[in-house]
Amino acid sequence: MTQPTLPETKMPRATIEQVRRDEHPVAVYLAGLNPNSRRTMLSALDTIARIGLGDDQATAWDVPWRRLRFQHTQLMRNALAEQYAHTTANRMLSALRGVLKAAWKLGLMTAEEYQKAASVASIRGETIPAGRAL
User: Fold this and answer.
1) 59, 89, 118, 119: least CB-packed within 10 angstroms?
2) Could you give the CA distance from residue 99 to residue 84 in angstroms, rounded to a whole number?
3) Measured between alpha carbons, how far is residue 60 from residues 22, 50, 90 in Å?
């Protein structure tokens, strides 16, 4: 399978210090979460950034979230499904959808762009109950 490729960004790497918190979709998304969930979801977004940008040093702050479209999110879904358990991949997709929603609410995407990009299906799977082997 080919690696998903997120849109190129023309800006130098953005960090939280360079972008106002109230204008960055990652910061807005994380601010709406329970403090105990923020680290988990930021880690999920960082993983998406590393896979999507093909850079082991990439973080969630480097992704041009406003430019993601359905083809990017669908490729990301497929990559996550191949590399992670369905529960982990779905948690990462939830974070992705949350950031896309924040980008839309900030006026960085149209409603149609948001709906299309966020419309990727969850990953189906089955969890085998824990128990002892007989």
Assistant:
1) 119
2) 20
3) 16, 8, 17
Total Cβ atoms within 10 A of residue 118: 20
CA-based torsion, 4, 24, 89, 73: positive or negative = negative
Of 26, 5, 18, nearest to 68 (Cα)? Answer: 5
- Rg of the Cα atoms in the chain: 15
Residue 127 phi/psi, 5° resolution? -100, 125
pLDDT tens across 22-71, in order? 789 999 999 999 999 999 999 999 999 999 999 999 999 999 999 999 99
- Token digits for 40? 């988990």
Q: Is the dihedral of CA 1, 54, 66, 44 positive or negative?
A: positive
DSSP-assigned letter for residue 17:
T
User: pTM for this structure?
Assistant: 0.81
Interatomic CA distance for residues 123 and 54, integer angstroms = 22
Of the candidates 15, 48, 5, 25, the residue with the CA atom closest to the CA atom of residue 108: 25
Cα-based distances in Å from 83 to 6, 88, 89: 18, 10, 8
